[in-house]
Sequence to fold (220 residues):
Amino acid sequence: MVNSVNSSTTGAAATSSLTAASTDIGATQDRFLKLLVTQMQNQDPLNPMDNAQVTSQMAQLSTVTGIDKLNSTVQALSSSMLASQSLQAVSMIGHVALTDGDSMDLANGKAYGGVELTQPADKVTVQISDAYGAVVRTLQLGAQESGVVDFSWDGMTDTGSTATDGKYTFTAVAELGGKKSDAATLSYGLVNSVAQSSSGVTVNIGNQGEVGLNTIRKIL
Fold:
């Protein structure tokens, strides 16, 4: 019922925008034609307006009118798409999402993260750091294909002790043919809410705060 109401409201708003735009365009055309007729009525009989000049003015009006109509249509479609994205994003609430980020939460000896590779790698290394920036664990993920690579951490440190629960950060380095490059890091988080603003639809995910829909790589 809510989706139906929202969709109807969106459609009505888009229609209203197009109607108002059409009215403005019609008024512009009327003003132009009145000016053109007045100009022709008051022209010098011995030096009448050139046909090419009249044709050129008509062509200019046609071009401006077409651009105005196109802009109005695109704006209406953009508003409708934004509302549609909001409705779709609402279904993500309560789900775990994988998005751009470098943080991970360790709870009960479990933490999860991801790495995105633009090309295959012979070796992928992940370093996990505590709140003070000290590296507590280095993970070797081995050779990986391009794409998203998930990994988990059992909370054990490089010294063999157990790390305390809390928030940690991580970095990733990929190596191919002896050449190293930074790999994009991805974080898991719970989707708490969805918001719509002038800049688009954003999603609130755990400790990462507000992120754009285009940064989400996976929904679990």
